[in-house]
Amino acid sequence: MNINKIFHINLGRTLIYLVLISFAIIYLAPLYVMFSTSLKDIEEIRSGNLLALPNDPTLYAWGKAWSSACTGSECNGLAPFFWNSVKIVFPAVIISTIVGAFNGYVLSKWKFKGSELLFGALLFGCFIPFQVILLPMAILLSKLGLSNTVSGLVLVHVIYGVAFTTLFFRNYYVGIPTELVRAARLDGAGFIDIFRHIFLPLSTPIIVVTLIWQFTQIWNDFLFGVVYSGSGTQPITVALNNLVNTSIGGKEYNVDMAAAIIAALPTLIVYVFAGKYFVRGLTAGAVKG
Amino acid sequence: MGHIQLKNVCKSFGSTEVLKDIDLDIQDGELLILIGPSGCGKSTLMNLIAGLEDITSGQIVVAGSDVSDKSPKDRDIAMVFQSYALYPTMNVARNISFGLEMRKVPKDEQDETVNKVAELLQIDHLLDRKPGQLSGGQRQRVAMGRALARSPKAFLFDEPLSNLDAKLRVEMRTEIKKLHQRLGTTIVYVTHDQVEAMTLANRIAVLKDGIIQQLGTPYEIYNDPANHFVADFMGSPGMNFVECIVFEDKLVIHSGSQNYQLSVPCSDAINRSGLDSVLLGIRPEMLTDLKPHENNPYIHEVIFDVEVIEPMGGDTIAIGKWNDTEVQARLSPESGEIADKGFKLQVDTSKAIVFDPLTGQRVR
Ligand SMILES: Nc1ncnc2c1ncn2[C@@H]1O[C@H](COP(=O)(O)OP(=O)(O)OP(=O)(O)O)[C@@H](O)[C@H]1O
Ligand SMILES: [Mg+2]
After folding, report:
1. Which of B41, B156, B174, B339 could form a disulfide with B79 if both were Cys (CB 3.0 to 4.6 A apart)?
2. pTM of the shown model
3. Which residues have CB under 8 Å from B122's CB, separation 6+?
4. Which CATH number is A79-287's, of 3.20.20.70, 3.30.70.3400, 1.10.10.10, 1.10.3720.10?
5. Which chain B residues contact residue A190 at CB under 8 A?
6. Which residues surround ligand 2, an ion (CB under 5 A)?
7. CA nearest B73 in A: which residue?
């Protein structure tokens, strides 16, 4: 009977592992193909098997994708656009997170007449499809003189992101007892003091969640990038598209693959290093007094 | 210094009136207990005094100056919350010193105060811990320490002991009483627990539906309640209420298949009121075993059919019926053992009180 039981458990476990492994393979296969293809030369790709390991690994495609592949009429690789993306992403992520934290703090702990309505309206912002705001936003940007600039793209991402970051912070702060605010007010702390000394130290999990969320959203954005950027200010996603669509001579799949990985690398790295905080932050509950 | 006056204070949330025309004069150094059923507005009143909510109308005066429009930090009042509300990311020492830090007290003075307060409350060995690493009783002490550190004009305690277990509650109760005697600072203290109220209070204010029903010393509240509500609310086990016919100047009760006529001290008032029937209020401890007594018109011997007994240790509660209404008597444990149908009960009506059965107001 005992043996039976052990056997039973093992069978169940084995089944679970089999299912998990097969799904992992399905999800990881494309990445593997991309990676191995990026290390092959073009001859091998034409003749060889898609799933085979490279015979003679070379970094040629990576070098070309980074610094000399043609993206339209220019042939400087992805590098300049990578830095464009960095210049867009960092300010946009930081500003939208800070604004979201303050919004969340006010909307959860300093309610005023109409604050619920305001929150509802902000929430609505999460559900507006990108396409709807394309034209009005373009007009706004040109009125502000920010068309085709990095600052313009930062502004767009901040505006669109604040709805999400506010939602994150507000829902997190709602779980923090309001009596803490009351106690601090009696202790003589003001609006900013309370945020700085009491809420900020409690916010690490939600800050991590928000940073990761905003980083991936903005880094991966294509639509705003393609619409609001000029020739010198395109983010990497737009450049990747151009690179893949520009073929001088035959199509270089290895360069395309390397470029795609370069474009995806920052978000991949963020998930690998901060993913566990993301999960933890999403499930972090209220704070015990 | 800690003299707090509330003058015609009203508070509404939207269209619901929570507090109606509250007048309270809390003397310097007094420990005033606010007691009342859940939702009667106790916490709201505390928040008004602290300045965490704005009054709708009226005036709040602390130490002679009108603070009605002042923010909490300018009122110099400290509060201990039911949930303690300790700052979770700060250690105990910083929890205590935070109020001083915000008021820009020099660092060495802060440390000195923290040590003094910690010693007073016997939490000096906990100063480096976070609130999450403390037991309920320790958190309670830290919360009091935070209030003490600032030496405010007055303390507000909102049900500070309700999260503790019964034994710790009694301990902390005594400690708060000692602390109050030692510091002599004004304290307004909210509780649900009427034993806490009786033991701690200089005066008790009984609140119901946002109206102060009675304000008086524990003795007055217990022995001379203003109305049926106060009489019913204070005391455990509660006062017995029996509706009785008035016969001449006596009250008629039916107990153990017999009728009795009880004399009560307020018989003149009953006659004056012209009521045919009244609500008799008499505390269980006035219904006892037979005891020797002087010739006293208010002592009666009544046959009592005991239906249920509830031994409480020190004494035993016996439950039976007068006029088909449940009545509790307080017997010695020995008589409790043998109490049954036909038990001979001594009823002392010298402290019995009488209410108008319709309005619940005292007849006196
Ligand atoms: N911010 C608010 N908005 C609307 N109504 C409120 C608000 N705060 C309190 N109330 C109402 O005011 C009444 C009194 O509340 P309060 O918290 O003062 O009661 P309490 O006497 O402290 O009760 P408890 O003993 O349960 O703590 C309740 O009916 C409550 O619903
Ligand atoms: Mg309350």
Report:
1. B156
2. 0.83
3. B141
4. 1.10.3720.10
5. 73
6. B 43
7. A188
